[in-house]
Amino acid sequence: MFSKKIVVVIGLILLAVAAFWQFNGADEPATAEYDEAELASMAFRQQILHASDLVAGMATAVKNNDQAAIEQWQQKAVEVAKAAELTDSDITFISSEKGREYLVFHAKRALFNEAFEQHYYQLKGIDALKTKYPEARDLFAEADRLIAARDAIIMDIAQELSDTETPDEANIKQAKALWQERFRQSNETPVTQDE
Predict the structure, then answer these.
(1) Do 68 and 51 fall within a single domain?
(2) R_g of the chain computed on alpha carbons
(3) Reported pTM
(4) Residues 109 and 168 in one domain
């Protein structure tokens, strides 16, 4: 008797699971499907919007607060999109206010990266850059990590230069100068001439 109850309960559970699958399988949410041409257009749109010359031109225009130049660079992106025969929706996006905002957003991120490199080499902090370029907030943690690592290396160099356990200001100043020289040398690319 007891085993018949278990069999009935298991049977009801299996029936409930089968019904659940049956009804939920039919109600799957519709997902947007794109054909190959639309996917290719979206991918090429991203290539256009992130092209190095476009980002650099927009960054210069943003840095100079030159609205006319921003519009000119946006128009160049539209022209490239049309020449590449992107979909109408992609061209509309690139030419829209949202498209301009997107381009300005990425230009400001590029400006943050550029300014960060200068601050890094000049042994400066980046708090002012964080305030100026909130668009790059996802880059702040890595930038802070790089600054901390740079400062730790400088303190290690200062410790090596010091005759005492704690380096003095002169040791730190010398360590900073040595670090900057090493950094400059490591970023120089050898110039080779073709024979």
Answers:
(1) yes
(2) 29
(3) 0.72
(4) no
Structural domain of 63: 36-121
**C-alpha dist (Å) from residue 41 to 72, 81, 82, 105:** 22, 9, 11, 22
Q: Is residue 193 part of a domain?
A: no
User: What confidence tens digit (pLDDT) does each residue in 109-143 have?
Assistant: 999 999 999 999 999 999 999 999 999 999 999 99
User: How many CA atoms does the CB half-sphere of 114 hold within 13 Å?
Assistant: 12
Q: What is the DSSP letter of 30?
A: P
- The answer to whether 157 and 149 are in contact (CB under 8 A) is no
Residues 6+ apart with CB under 8 A from 166: none
Structural domains counted in the chain: 2
Residues in the chain, total: 195
Instruction: Count CA atoms within 13 Å of residue 85 on its CB side.
Output: 1
